[in-house]
């Protein structure tokens, strides 16, 4: 019988298949790495805002407590963003002519709140509650990083399911005294685990159920 394909076709076929395999594996590898990188989680990204509000200046140098502007962080699911009036307690006097603050004055004139773009935003299918964490002694910096050093705010932690679960499995070393939750420079010489175990007992924190899917997906 006459040969339909030349002998070399076999070699080309093998080479083609090999290249296909390499391409598929390579693609998979790229997808897997991107999935867990900062690109996917939006970490360290700076987002445009209506005016350049600096946490470094206000929370850092001026040492205004987080709760002055994020008033419901201890009581509600949402920390809340400050209304224009909160800024105006100072800026009706300080820097009141400055151009950077014009959006603030416009917001007051038009009775329209400033539209801040969200930096940390979980998908809708995830349930989160600030009050529960803050009242358990989890400091803001555990999840938001050194906010008091950020000129423009960025997402410093991935805050993905892996990070939530890692702490929910073993929260003790992440806890601190309640009056230190907003302190960005809190430090203790005591062993964090020893302190944490004691705080957990005192506050009746039980890890049973904390890693159940239904805790965060309800
Ligand atoms: C256990 C982690 C964790 C801790 C502790 C935490 N946050 Fe958050 N924060 C988050 C997550 C997650 C979101 C995004 C929530 C969402 O999209 O529903 C968020 C969102 C926010 C927001 C914007 C949306 C909102 O809730 O109004 C502000 C402001 C905020 N946090 C401030 C704070 C402050 C201030 C503290 C400390 C007193 C704090 N957070 C402690 C995880 C945390
Ligand atoms: C407790 C007082 C106080 C409050 C409240 C306050 N600021 Fe300020 N702000 C200041 C002071 C003080 C300065 C710095 C003035 C200077 O350096 O000469 C400043 C400076 C600024 C600047 C200039 C850029 C910079 O950071 O140096 C902007 C923009 C600004 N504030 C926006 C806001 C916004 C928006 C709010 C509300 C979310 C707010 N401020 C709330 C006191 C305050
Ligand atoms: C003077 C008011 C003021 C103080 C004090 C302040 N913040 Fe904010 N915060 C804001 C404003 C305004 C925004 C929205 C603009 C932005 O994202 O920078 C914001 C945004 C945030 C966000 C991002 C919310 C989101 O998802 O968009 C976090 C997280 C946050 N603040 C944490 C803190 C922490 C932690 C402290 C204390 C160390 C603090 N803030 C102190 C005014 C304040
Ligand atoms: C650094 C530690 C830490 C991180 C990170 C953390 N949690 Fe928690 N979370 C806790 C602790 C501690 C409790 C238990 C509080 C208690 O029982 O008083 C808790 C409780 C909860 C609860 C239970 C509320 C209830 O109804 O009892 C939810 C929901 C929750 N966390 C969601 C999340 C989500 C979503 C994330 C990630 C975005 C997250 N947590 C990240 C420490 C953490
Ligand atoms: C402590 C909170 C927490 C618990 C418990 C939890 N999740 Fe999640 N889950 C999250 C957060 C936060 C996200 C979204 C952020 C991300 O991309 O990881 C998420 C995302 C997901 C997604 C979407 C993943 C994707 O890549 O789009 C699935 C599916 C999921 N979770 C399933 C589960 C299952 C199944 C369980 C129980 C075994 C569970 N989760 C327990 C916090 C939690």
UniProtKB/TrEMBL annotation:
The keyword Membrane applies. The chain crosses the membrane at residues 12-34. InterPro entries: Multihaem_cyt_sf. It comes from the Bacteria. The keyword Membrane applies. CDD domains: Cytochrom_C3. Keywords: Membrane, Transmembrane, Transmembrane helix. PANTHER family: CYTOCHROME C7-LIKE DOMAIN-CONTAINING PROTEIN, LIPOPROTEIN CYTOCHROME C. This is Cytochrome c3 family protein. It comes from Pseudomonas fungipugnans.
